[in-house]
Amino acid sequence: MQLMLWSLQRARPLWVLNLQEVAEEEEGCRQNPGQLFNPPLVHCVSAAACGNVLACAAEDGRVHVVRVGGGSGPERRTALQAHSQGASQAHFLSFLSHPHWLATGGNDGRVALWDVSPRLSISHGAKVNWLCPALLKGEPCLLVADQSSALSVYSLSAL
């Protein structure tokens, strides 16, 4: 699993970060029992409003958070063990008090909000297919789509 920052002028990557190698070094090559692929697939990439922080939701349940610096490569910040099954979605919530709130959803049916540690964990109950941060009538909300025909709306106004 590689994260690449591309130069569109030169049509080549400026840098490449192999997230699988970093995770293996940190955790001694443990593979999630629910993981079907090796290396784990990236399901979603999101950029914070500041433009220099990325989040990658991966099949192994981790969400990798990476700072893009001005140097020759990225600074890897952390890997959140966000979900017990694949992390299907990760989105920064630009409308909250600061730009580094991150919403994640996974195949384990959980939706979590992260700053550095989880601030809010919602037991959604079904596999999360899509997350959409939104302002509804001026109130911050998180829209969650799963495998049903219903769309769930969770208020974030208490944050």
Q: Helix and strand succession?
A: EEHEEEEEEEEEEE
Radius of gyration: 16 Å
Unreliable stretches: none
Specify the helix fraction band.
under 10%
> Which structural class fits the helix and strand makeup?
mainly beta
Treating each run of at least 4 consecutive H or I residues as one helix, how many helices? 1
**pLDDT averaged over residues:** 84
State the separation between the terminal residues, measured CA to CA. 33 Å
The biggest sheet amounts to: 4 strands, antiparallel
Number of strands: 13
Instruction: Trace the largest sheet across and list its strands.
Output: 3-4-5-6
Oligomerization state: single chain
Inertia-based shape: globular
Strand content: over 45%
Helix and strand topology:
Layout: E1 2-7, E2 12-18, H1 19-27, E3 42-47, E4 53-58, E5 62-68, E6 74-81, E7 87-92, E8 102-106, E9 110-114, E10 118-123, E11 130-136, E12 139-145, E13 151-155
Antiparallel strand pairs: 1-2, 3-4, 4-5, 5-6, 7-8, 8-9, 9-10, 11-12, 12-13
Q: What attributes characterize this protein structure?
A:
WD repeat; WDR53; repeat; about 160 residues; four-stranded antiparallel sheet; WD repeat domain 53; WD40_repeat_dom_sf
